[in-house]
Each structure stands twice: as structure tokens, then as C-alpha cells.
Amino acid sequence: MTVSTGIASWQPNDSLESLFRRADQALYQAKSAGRNRLELWSVQMENDNA
Predict the structure, then answer these.
(1) Domain map of the chain by residue range?
(2) For position 35, what pLDDT does the model report?
């Protein structure tokens, strides 16, 4: 069994939808980086998906 986790922090004036979207981006980054990892969301992830 493996566990991959994506973490994003709450930003001022944030909606739940945008928070979950960022956490989801971090989760998929963790999975693509080899799984069984924890990734923190970063602005770079947003830029890579643009």
C-alpha cells in the first residue's frame, strides 16, 4: 500500500473550491514524482498547469 498526499494552505479570501484545486494539483504532483510522497502546493505548480 502506498500513500500520496497533496497539501495546500488557506489563503486570504480563498474559496473551498480553489483550496481543493491547489491540494489536488499537489496530490497529482506527488503521484507523478514516484508516489508514496507528500507534496506541498507551490506557485510553480500553478505555473506548470497554465
Answers:
(1) 5-48
(2) 82
Residue 38 neighbours by CB under 8 Å, 6+ apart: 4, 5, 6, 7, 30
pTM over 0.90: no
Given a contact cutoff of 8 angstroms between Cβ atoms, the answer to whether 25 and 40 are in contact is no
Cα separation, 50 vs 46, whole angstroms: 6
Q: What is the 3-state secondary structure (H, E, C) of 25-50?
A: HHHHHHHHCCCCCEEECCHHHHHHCC
Sign of CA dihedral 21, 19, 11, 30: negative
